[in-house]
Amino acid sequence: MCNLRSFFTPLLAVLLLQSLVVVVSAQGSATTWKTLTGNPPLVIARGGFSGLFPDSSSDAFQFATLASLPDVVLWCDVQLTKDSVGICAPDLRLDNYTSIAQVMQNKDKLYLVNGIPTRGWFTVDFTLNELSLIFLTQGIYSRSEKFDNIYSIQTVEDVANLKPPGLWLNIQHDAFFTQHNLSMRNYVLSLYRRVVINHLSSPEVGFLRSVVKRFNLNITKLVLRFLEPNVIEPSTNETYGSLSNNLTFIKTFASGILIPKSYIWPLDASNYVQPHTSIVSDAHKAGLEVFVSDFYNDVPLSYNYSYDPVTEYLNFVDYVDFSVDGVLSDFPVTPSATIGKLNFFMGAVVSLPTIIELSTVATSSFSYSDFSFCIADCFSGLGKNAAPQVNLSVISKNGASGDYPGCTDLAYQNAILDGADVIDCPVQISKDGIPFCLGTINLFDSTTVAQSSYSNRAQTIPQIEAGSGIFTFSLTWSDIQSLTPVISSPYSKNELFRNPKFRNSGKFLTLSDFLALAKNASSLSGVLISIENAAYLIEKEGLPVTDKVLDVLSKAGYDDPTSKKVMIESTNSSVLKKFRDKNNYELVYRIEEDIQDAQDAALKDIKGFANSVVISKASVFRESSSFLIGVTNVVPKLRSHGLSVYVETFRNEFVSQAWDFFSDSTVEINSYVMGASISGVITEFPLTSARYKSKSLMFLVDMQQYRVNPGRSWNRCLGSNSSSRPYMSPARPGDLVQLIAPFALPPAQPPSPVITAPDVEEGPLPSHRASAPVPGGGATAIPPGPPNGLPKIGACIFLSNLAMLITILLLL
Ligand SMILES: *[C@@H]1O[C@H](CO)[C@@H](O)[C@H](O)[C@H]1NC(C)=O
Ligand SMILES: *[C@@H]1O[C@H](CO)[C@@H](O)[C@H](O)[C@H]1NC(C)=O
Ligand SMILES: *[C@@H]1O[C@H](CO)[C@@H](O)[C@H](O)[C@H]1NC(C)=O
Ligand SMILES: *[C@@H]1O[C@H](CO)[C@@H](O)[C@H](O)[C@H]1NC(C)=O
Ligand SMILES: *[C@@H]1O[C@H](CO)[C@@H](O)[C@H](O)[C@H]1NC(C)=O
Ligand SMILES: *[C@@H]1O[C@H](CO)[C@@H](O)[C@H](O)[C@H]1NC(C)=O
Ligand SMILES: *[C@@H]1O[C@H](CO)[C@@H](O)[C@H](O)[C@H]1NC(C)=O
Ligand SMILES: *[C@@H]1O[C@H](CO)[C@@H](O)[C@H](O)[C@H]1NC(C)=O
Ligand SMILES: *[C@@H]1O[C@H](CO)[C@@H](O)[C@H](O)[C@H]1NC(C)=O
Ligand SMILES: *[C@@H]1O[C@H](CO)[C@@H](O)[C@H](O)[C@H]1NC(C)=O
């Protein structure tokens, strides 16, 4: 692997163009930070950008400096080799994050680590030279392994040579190295003569006390790292929990503490956040800074944060009565964006997330203060009021269905509170002809009908969907009201569940209740009503759903031109044509399938019956193995035909996002909005999109415009004339995938289909009078289940519908 670094450097540079984003928000109203010093909280990148690249790899460190606030601190876990060289590596044992187990078979050992017998390949058994034969791998299985076996181990000095704005060394195991006759203390003290160490942390009080007199504490801050409260700190024989009540003692040898998140916001047994402790203000009173660890975008966050890491960071960096002094993160872009945007609006020192040319950092000919100045200069002229607003419609999907059972009063009320512009009602119709809102026509998907006395109403109707279902038109509205709603759980197989406390809360609404609720909410600009299966309902069940919708809308006062906007959505053009003479309605054609292109004839047809189109995320950016590999022509083509484009479905759970979005739903939204120029998002988590839209100033700093002229300081900010836009398109699909070694590239994907005119054209809807309803709709009858009460599991086996099986399992 010759000179990989020079090969990857230009590629990394390209990557930067892609999606570096600053989110600026007016979240904080304070004029100064409630940190100990009043300065903004520090962003500390654990092992670099270890959420993406292998921990402590060269690109993890370099990318962290590029994707974060300009004063980002690089965190290095120091381990010693047999020949006393300090390396940056997350653990004593190499087998967890390198290829060593394959390269040096049978060289593993059994040692006591803090009294616990531990087997593995330990750094103390290998010289640096021997370690040059092995490569780093991703130690956390849920992250991409595509960057494995590219990067070699970095020494602490390699990292220091990057001249990062801050270097933080963590000494997790001083005692272990002492047992192996290696002195971490001597190593650190000798390194200190050559390298600026900004922070030095350890969970061992004895180690910190042994070095405290040897450091200039104006340059190096000593920090006691807390382990879990019940763990005993060996040198004091006290638990970390009891040490946390002894802050004046800690102040005698340290200037700060590093604590897990739960010391501030404890979680209850069911993963909800409890009221915060007083540790931050206690530590600040004792003169200690408070740094917080365990921030990962890609783990199940507390339900209170709705899987949105920005929401979590805000609770720490800008809470009502405190700000912590720094956060230790595997995804430093997210706290950088959170802190940077707060900073901008606070009018304090402007220190925005920046992108700095990689080669510049590497050759260290670059001054960070110049860069901050440049940014400040560029934005000082803009002022708060000039902050450009994103023009984006935030449309809910079944209300705030990420937090509450879909289409219930709770889901809609919360979507409104969360700041949605448009709430949606997927109209279904009951046996007695009442239109109401529910995500699917099959009651299995979002209610406990399988548990109810109606469980014997299951039918198989291939025209509607494969598999069997209990359909809304088989029950009366009062039957349906008696059913219990169920929260959707699209990622339960990844163990990511939604708000269990409200799993069965809320009540369903008729279309008319829904319209009244929406009409009352002054923040809403409109409602979206989607209609499916209209032809079947009218022909087989005698239920003219389009007529009913028109009637309810008119009765609710939505025909009044001054009322809220009405959007009618369908995948079937014949439905939209029924609404054509309602001039004030926006007609939305939904293309359910992922497409890669659209023929002109199809576009002309669509333009004939619709004002806008809903497409899937995969119809905008093409993905392979969750890496973006390209952008389709679909959005530009739709827009060139004068159609607005809404994209579905945005979710906060990180498993729903491509790697290119760093497990941060805000980065994903920004990439679609700024990168693909879409007009609206359809989202189950409207809070995240609404915060992005209303309070955020997103911008991307284009590296090309930040090229340093040798010998001169940054003299061009965001381009020197008006042709340069400061708000750059962030989406550069394909950039990240280029960093993958050729042998690990994802397989080629078959292309998605192209939408054609015949796909779009439909015959007219059958008219109501023309067709007598066929009782039962010609459906295959299903043998009835037990007459009353819960069905036996055996009776459910015929149900091929996975969603129903999951529902049943959840309810058992
Ligand atoms: C490395 O250690 C972490 C934490 O102990 C563990 O979750 C992970 O599975 C380990 N990975 C490997 C490759 O052993
Ligand atoms: C450390 O040094 C002592 C004394 O020199 C020796 O007895 C011991 O075996 C050494 N331990 C290790 C792990 O090398
Ligand atoms: C640290 O800074 C303080 C205040 O600026 C100064 O008085 C002190 O001499 C400095 N200490 C060292 C060791 O430089
Ligand atoms: C604080 O910790 C020190 C060292 O363990 C101990 O000597 C002292 O008694 C403790 N003070 C309190 C109030 O617990
Ligand atoms: C540590 O404390 C425990 C109980 O608090 C005591 O039993 C034990 O002897 C102590 N160990 C040392 C090394 O002081
Ligand atoms: C977290 O959510 C639960 C359930 O909604 C709520 O009871 C609790 O107060 C929330 N925690 C905080 C700190 O707001
Ligand atoms: C409309 O708002 C008023 C006052 O905010 C409230 O009293 C009323 O119940 C609301 N109506 C509906 C249908 O939500
Ligand atoms: C925002 O977008 C909507 C529809 O996409 C358009 O009608 C409107 O003119 C846009 N507003 C601005 C200020 O660009
Ligand atoms: C402004 O932009 C135009 C077009 O990119 C370019 O030709 C011109 O030289 C620029 N002016 C300055 C002062 O950079
Ligand atoms: C669309 O509606 C027409 C009736 O207008 C019907 O014949 C056709 O099957 C429907 N298409 C789909 C895909 O449901």
From TrEMBL:
InterPro entries registered for this protein in UniProt: GP_PDE_dom (IPR030395), PLC-like_Pdiesterase_TIM-brl (IPR017946)
Pfam families membership: GDPD (PF03009)
Annotated segments matching region Disordered: 752-772
Signal sequence interval, chain numbering: 1-26
Reaction(s) the record says it catalyses: a sn-glycero-3-phosphodiester + H2O = an alcohol + sn-glycerol 3-phosphate + H(+)
Any GO MF annotation of the entry: glycerophosphodiester phosphodiesterase activity
EC number: 3.1.4.46
SUPFAM superfamilies the record matches: PLC-like phosphodiesterases
Catalytic EC class: hydrolase
Keywords: Glycerol metabolism, Glycoprotein, Hydrolase, Signal
BP GO terms, sorted: glycerol metabolic process; lipid metabolic process
GP-PDE domain segment(s): 41-339, 392-693
Family indicated by similarity: Belongs to the glycerophosphoryl diester phosphodiesterase family.
Name of the featured protein: glycerophosphodiester phosphodiesterase
Organism: Populus tomentosa (Chinese white poplar)
